[in-house]
Design a protein that fits this description.
By secondary structure, this protein is an alpha+beta fold. Helix content is 16%, strand content 41%.
Length: 104
């Protein structure tokens, strides 16, 4: 799984690091600090990109995860860096601070 440069930068900033970062597996490494962090998002859904629609600044990406489609809005820069294209395997990584439960 690959994070975009902006995603890596944001994780590094949260760690208090403002230099360059690299990403390997689920680990984000900051150069020169020895610091590393795992993603806290537990919902990593592997699927296939079915659509990438670029707008002026934001792209809309749809990932099929076995019959259900997860939509995402990400920057055009992230689409380019991740080289997202229809038919490509990708992960929908979902991090929610709140989970709501409903019943019929």
């Amino acid at each position: 799984m690959i994070l975009s440069a902006l995603g890596r930068h944001r994780v590094a900033q949260q760690m208090g690091h403002h230099g360059p970062v690299s990403y390997s597996g689920y680990w984000v490494n900051t150069y020169g600090t020895g610091a590393a962090m795992k993603l806290s998002a537990r919902n990593r859904l592997k699927g296939t990109v079915t659509e990438v629609t670029k707008g002026a600044t934001t792209s809309h990406v749809r990932i099929d995860i076995g019959g259900a489609v997860v939509p995402a809005s990400i920057t055009n820069e992230a689409v380019d860096e991740l080289k997202l294209a229809k038919g490509q395997t990708a992960y929908a990584v979902i991090k929610a601070s709140d989970v709501m439960v409903a019943v019929d």
